[in-house]
Predict the structure of Nitroreductase.
Amino acid sequence: MLYGKEHVQRYQQTDGQEGHDWNNTTVLLLTTKGRNSGRSYTTPLIYQRHGDDHVVVASKGGDPDHPEWYKNLLADPEVEVQVKGERFTARARTAGPEERPELWRLMNGTWPHYDAYQQKTDREIPVVVLETVG
């Protein structure tokens, strides 16, 4: 099963033919700029479409701390996204309180573990909306 760096490499090499469909869900690649290093970091994330946007969840498996990619996009919300062979620039934002419940249901429907992750942590797990730029 693909995971981590191997997942990113196979996804990039095959334009998502390997790695987009994963564990009965779908995965995109999110590239953020390191808030301290300035280096690019690419992370495979479960996603769903919501209108023209892509939605991901900063769960880190219910860890008490946010994932590094989420901290990076808070510092610089301009990100690069790859969905299969399509690559585009997006602006990332955390879903607000009025839209989060609907988006959480959408994401939990595709990966039911999110509810369990939320139960493991005191932080509200952020739902992130990726809006295509341009």
Observations:
- Helices lie at 4-13, 68-75, 100-110, 113-120.
- The beta strands are 21-22, 25-33, 40-46, 48-50, 53-57, 78-83, 86-94, 127-132.
- The chain has a mean pLDDT of 95.
